[in-house]
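From the shared-data thread, chain only:
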Amino acid sequence: MAEPTAHVGQRGRRPGALATLAYGVAIATVCLDQLSKYWVLDVIRLPDRVTIPVLPILSLSMVWNPGVSFGLLRAGSEAGRLALAAFAACIVVALGWWARTIERPITAAGLGLVMGGAVGNNLIDRLRFGKVVDFIDVSGLHFFPWVFNIADSAITVGVALLILDSIITPNRPSE
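Structure, as tokens:
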């Protein structure tokens, strides 16, 4: 009697195998984000509203952001801060659940970046500080005036990867 084999998906991968990639990318994103914030806050102790030029287009500028990515939708109250943190937690759980079913590495990378960025900014920073630590300033480009952080970048790149994946992946008919 032959032993049952697990269903193998696209390119010989088992369903859920890419979830590990997504979760790994999320963990790496959170670690990089929080290490960079530790460096800015506790090592160089960048003062609020001070700008340190690094390159002609890059500076370090300390900004405390009570809103979501790039300062949008400011949450000035305790209830707003907790609501943003709770919303982010729900999004991370939903994306983590979705990650269990993905079949393409680009989807895994995109989901991992979004999950890691949401945890870094909207959970850890909001619960720890009440607002988000932003410090990457590329206003030297003369078209992007916002100050951001690694988590913001991860969310942006992650969403771009998910959109790209949806564009380049052909629609398959329902089975």
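The chain is about 55% helix and 10% strand.
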